[in-house]
Amino acid sequence: MKSDKVLDATGLACPMPIVKTKKALDGLAAGQVLEIHATDKGAKSDLTAWSNAGGHQLLEAREDNGVFKFWIKKS
């Protein structure tokens, strides 16, 4: 999936993946896509809930060799 920016949040524990995601999304324009890589097992539920609460669209979430990858489209 195409992304406009990639955020490496691997090795970070909650709540840092969310904090870094918010900061990275603030730097994007509406409609752009942020790709996030995280290793925190709670990131899937946290980023899904955070995206919904913020009105952003979680386009895809998957795990690849222990790394959770997310694509969020900024609203």
From TrEMBL:
InterPro entries linked to this entry: TusA-like, TusA-like_sf
Domain spans labelled UPF0033: 7-31
SUPFAM superfamilies, alphabetized: SirA-like (SSF64307)
Pfam families assigned to the protein according to its UniProt record, in alphabetical order: TusA
PANTHER family from the UniProt entry: SULFUR CARRIER PROTEIN YEDF-RELATED (PTHR33279)
Family designation: Belongs to the sulfur carrier protein TusA family.
Official protein name in the record: UPF0033 domain-containing protein
